[in-house]
Amino acid sequence: MIDKVLLYYICIFVFRITQVFWSIAVILCAMTIEEIQQGFIKGSIDLSPLLKDPIGTTRNYGITEIVNERASNAIDGRINFTSTGKGILVQCDLTATLQLTCSRCLDTFTYTMHCNIEEEFFCSGDAAGDLATSMSGDLTAFTLPYNCSLDLGELICEYILLNLPMKLLCKPDCAGVRR
Questions:
Q1: C-alpha torsion 69→72→78→83, nearest 10
Q2: Of 50, 69, 75, 95, which one has the greatest count of Cβ atoms within 10 A?
Q3: Alpha carbon of 90 to those of 97, 118, 119, 152: distances in Å?
Q4: What is the phi/psi pair of residue 25, to 5°?
Q5: Is 170 within a domain?
Q6: b/e string for 86-100 if b means 16 or more Cβ within 10 A?
Q7: What is the mean pLDDT of the chain?
Q8: CA 89 to each of CA 55, 93, 117, 162: distance values in angstroms, whole numbers, following the listed order
Q9: What is the pLDDT of residues 45-104, one digit of tens each?
Q10: Is residue 179 part of a domain?
């Protein structure tokens, strides 16, 4: 009888330890809002060769190939760059794992979000030779810097922050702060 009780408690202990290790692993791979707001995600790519290619030329990358190592643990997805003649069309499908604080109970929880990014970046100056475009006063357009190196980290951070829910809840029926 004692052996069965002892085995039961050992199983519970192992189960709890496993839960703790998984929680630690998720926390180490997740980003916080503060890290995102501080520009935690770094990753730039030189797009000048693509600007010289024919219209419609596409280059595909995994997000983890471009962003820094710490961010690559929390972000996954694919990114496509397409030459449009005037600039580069950036299309990205990504999943980010975030460590957030619940608005009601103030507990931390892991939140996985999905983002679709689609933006066109236009050439500035003579970086693409005769492909350079005049922006004609379009203040909403994104422009590539003169060296045609695009900082994807800033773009990804903006989209993650824009796609966060207004109320961060650990679960839909969270009861709030417990006394």
A1: -40
A2: 75
A3: 22, 6, 5, 10
A4: -60, -40
A5: no
A6: bbbbbbbebebbbbb
A7: 75
A8: 11, 13, 10, 20
A9: 888 888 888 989 999 988 877 776 667 678 889 999 999 888 889 999 999 888 888 988
A10: no
CA nearest neighbour of 41 among 147, 155, 130: 155
* Containing structural domain, residue 90: 2-162
Token representation of residue 122: 């236009």
Domain tally for the chain?
1
Beta bridge partners of 94: 77, 115
* Tokens representing residue 116 in the block: 């679709």
pLDDT tens column, 21-39: 444 444 445 767 667 666 6
Residue 166 φ then ψ, to 5°: -65, -45
Amino acid letter, 17: I
Global pTM reads: 0.67
Residue 109 class from Cβ within 10 Å (0-12 exposed, 13-18 middle, 19+ buried)?
middle
Compute CA distances 136 → 122, 133, 140, 165, whole Å. Answer: 12, 9, 11, 36
Amino acid 118: pLDDT: 92
